Amino acid sequence: MKIQQFVVALSMVSLVALNACKKNESALAPVSSKATVEANPRALPAPGRNKVAYYTFDAAPVNQGYKSLVNFTDRANIVIVFEGTLWELADTVNYNSGWMVNSIYNSKKQILDDIQTLRARGVKVLMNVDDAASWSTSTPFTTYNGTSYTYTQFASFINNCVNKVGLDGIALDVEHGAYDNSNYRNMIKELGRYFGPLSSASGSKIYTAAVYSGGEPGPSFRDPALANYMNFVMDMAYFSDNTSRFNYWAATLGNAKVMDGMVHDYNSQASAVSHAQWHPSPDKAGVMVYAANANKAYTDAILGAF
To answer: How many domains does the chain fold into?
Structure first.
């Protein structure tokens, strides 16, 4: 069977299974499915060699046309799908944020197909997951039909969605009204059961977060008690000095757990390339480019320099 036909067939099976398990869904149990896209068994990037590129659906191209997930960079070994929600890719019937569209994409099937094309190339593909004010409560998520999930149920639901879509992990975006308390920490740690270095899938599933010092509860991730659940954290204070923001996190987490993010709007290519070529001892986790589909030449220059 050809790869494209195989992916389409799996998508159809997943949709049938999703609908079937929704009919039997209890008020206390997350959606589950026997039909999943198997995780890519390839190893994670070597320590210190994480080259991360965000694909953002609303990125405005700069000196180029719109590009797709499969052609917006030649240099990334980790791609993060940003905007929209993980659950709308896993359940295209009951969830739709309206965000995952641009001149390239007008259907979820196209996105799902391109994710698997990237993974077939050996690129690790993660889905962005926004935190929320509700994460600081005892019920961090409510389903489309009004069922409230505890942190254990929500983490299981996220893991099920990742497996249904066929992804290599998640990347949190930390800045959406939550605050650091026991509920929030329970949520972060529970996700670490399924993704990241302390999980049962430590060799294949990545768990990371984009954070910055001015975005609560971002500073809480300076605490190794939280950050140790993650492969690395990415600083998204693009408007700040590269060295200062790196040191802010590395002071408590160590160099190997931290990378700076770059973006075309704030970071000149020269300064970003210079930072990519900087290798402290021990080395940094890697480098990240946000909205990397805005300009391929910019993105590839930075990731290539690293």
So the answer is: 1
Contact between 183 and 140 (Cβ < 8 Å): yes
Q: Give the predicted TM-score (pTM) of the model.
A: 0.88
- Is 22 part of any domain? no
Domain contains 37: no
How far apart are alpha carbons 291 and 53 in whole angstroms? 7
CATH of the domain at 169: 3.20.20.80
Does 4 fall in a domain?
A: no
Residue pLDDT tens, the chain, 306 long: 333 333 333 343 343 334 433 333 332 333 333 334 444 457 899 999 999 999 999 999 999 999 999 999 999 999 999 999 999 999 999 999 999 999 999 999 999 999 999 999 999 999 999 999 999 999 999 999 999 999 999 999 999 999 999 999 999 999 999 999 999 999 999 999 999 999 999 999 999 999 999 999 999 999 999 999 999 999 999 999 999 999 999 999 999 999 999 999 999 999 999 999 999 999 999 999 999 999 999 999 999 998
User: Residue 264 has which token pair?
Assistant: 């075309």
Residue 189 CA: distances (Å) to CA of 69, 183, 221, 224? 30, 10, 12, 12
Residue-range definition of the domain harbouring residue 209: 49-305
